[in-house]
Specification:
Bound molecules: alpha-D-galactopyranose
Structural class: alpha+beta
Radius of gyration: 22 Å
Distance between the termini: 17 Å
Number of strands: 14
CATH architecture of the largest domain: 2-Layer Sandwich
Strand content: 15-25%
CATH class of the largest domain: Alpha Beta
Shape: globular
Largest sheet: 8 strands, mixed
């Protein structure tokens, strides 16, 4: 395995110091969770339909320093957001609609405006309780994400949710498998926060391994790690890597939970599935993975134009993922990249989830020197685009994109906290270190 550049010793020391001061304890007893951000080279918007996806983590993400608090109290501060979050793990977390006023129950709308960021920690407690875990130990913690990269389509929300899950589990001596944590994070997002997303994000964060592509079948929940081609494994030296990952930031930041577009598209996919399943005489859950390719081909003419486009995206994207795994396995980055760009185009034309700045970034990236392929990093409504680039051209491509984006979006580009493009490497899975 190559050398992981993130998190650095100084980042860790800094966070340990802050937590030690908050809790009045020695720095040596502070525990650390690292929870990386993820990219999804292929498999856009098909996880919620039980499709197949590919993913990888990067060498940036969330760090949560914490100590068990010796009672049920949770006290959290954040490097990005102001205020303090306080709640007790022996209070039952319920969804807004379920809450009864018996004093012991805490609703998910009970945070002050200033501390809305605390909903992920409360969501983690909700998920653990929902699956029958009774927690006694709270935590005192400080959470911090890589500067400028939050709310960017790198799945910072899943990285944060997982960080809190791992910390609460560690403080309460709970042994929980990655598969169970995938389900717990699904409960945070689908039930506690109301986003109808799939399991791509948390699977990537919990299952990835340095340098590998993670393949996940979201219907069967089976996954495998596809090792990089031999040449990559022999060369641990960073400068000799065959590829680098480019993140190109649009400057648009809006949480997916506040954007209606995501859930609307999920509903459209389900509507398409309903029509195709009825036409095929099948009475099963209306998600597109329950429709066979032959059934889709036989009945797709029954779909009205918008639904036909969503279904076309699903079936073509599944195919691209399968072809992409093969290309990755043989080290054929050109082919892998072409599939990524085709996925990007299908997101724009069939899934219709882009927004102007992200589509502009996509068009700039695919023309940049050495870029194998590019697409929206997350859902495409905000955040960044991701690209794979020949490592030797990474700097050149980055400066090309910085210049070109500034021309088309001068306001957004000049308000970014960093250059439009950040060059990254792959990362490892979420873990306690
Ligand atoms: C977001 C969601 C994921 C997935 C992607 C699009 O990141 O959280 O579940 O649907 O968008 O592929």
């Amino acid at each position: 395995m190559g050398v992981l550049s993130w998190p650095s010793d100084s980042e860790l020391d800094n966070i340990k110091k802050i937590v030690a001061e908050m809790a009045g304890v020695d720095v040596n007893i502070v525990r650390i969770v690292v929870s990386p951000y993820r990219i999804c080279p292929l498999g856009a918007h098909i996880d919620h339909q039980g499709g197949v996806v590919s993913a990888m983590t990067i060498d940036k993400g969330i760090i949560l320093g914490f100590v068990p608090s010796n009672d049920s109290q949770v006290l959290l501060r954040s490097g990005q957001f102001s205020g303090e979050v306080r709640f007790r793990v022996d209070q039952v977390q319920l969804l807004k609609n379920d809450a009864k006023s018996n004093g012991k129950i805490q609703q998910n709308d009970s945070l002050s405006e200033e501390c809305k960021w605390g909903c992920y920690a409360k969501g983690a407690l909700y998920a653990l309780q929902r699956r029958g875990n009774h927690l006694k130990q709270g935590i005192t913690g400080f959470i911090c994400g890589t500067k400028g990269l939050d709310s960017s389509g790198l799945s910072s929300s899943a990285a944060v949710g997982i960080a809190y899950l791992l910390a609460l589990e560690s403080a309460n001596n709970l042994t929980v498998s990655p598969t169970e944590n995938i389900e717990y994070d699904r409960l945070i997002e689908n039930e506690y926060l109301g986003l109808k997303n799939g399991i791509l994000d948390q699977s990537a964060i919990l299952l990835s391994s340095y340098g590998c592509l993670t393949f996940m079948d979201c219907k069967t929940k089976l996954h495998k790690l596809i090792h990089p081609p031999k040449v990559e494994m022999e060369k641990n030296d960073d400068t000799k890597k065959a590829y680098k990952i480019l993140l190109a930031f649009s400057g648009l930041k809006q949480a997916l939970t506040t954007n209606l577009g995501y859930n609307r598209r999920v509903t459209e996919c389900r509507d398409a599935a309903k029509i195709l399943l009825t036409a095929s005489g099948k009475d099963v859950e209306p998600i597109l993975c329950n429709v066979k390719l032959e059934e889709y081909e036989a009945h797709k003419s029954k779909l009205e134009p918008d639904l036909a486009k969503r279904a076309e995206h699903y079936f073509s994207e599944n195919m691209r993922v399968i072809k992409g795994l093969e290309a990755w396995g043989c080290g054929n980055f050109e082919e892998f990249g072409k599939l990524i760009s085709a996925s990007g185009l299908s997101s724009i034309q069939n899934y219709e989830c882009g927004c102007e700045p992200l589509i502009q970034l996509y068009n700039i990236l695919v023309k940049a020197p050495g870029v194998y392929g590019a697409r929206f990093s997350g859902a495409g409504f905000r955040g960044c685009c991701v690209a794979f680039v020949n490592a030797e051209y990474a700097e050149k491509a980055a400066s090309y994109v910085n210049n070109e984006y500034l021309k088309v979006q001068p306001d957004l580009a000049s308000h970014l906290n960093q250059d439009t493009v950040v060059i990254c490497d792959s990362g490892d899975c979420a873990r306690i270190i």
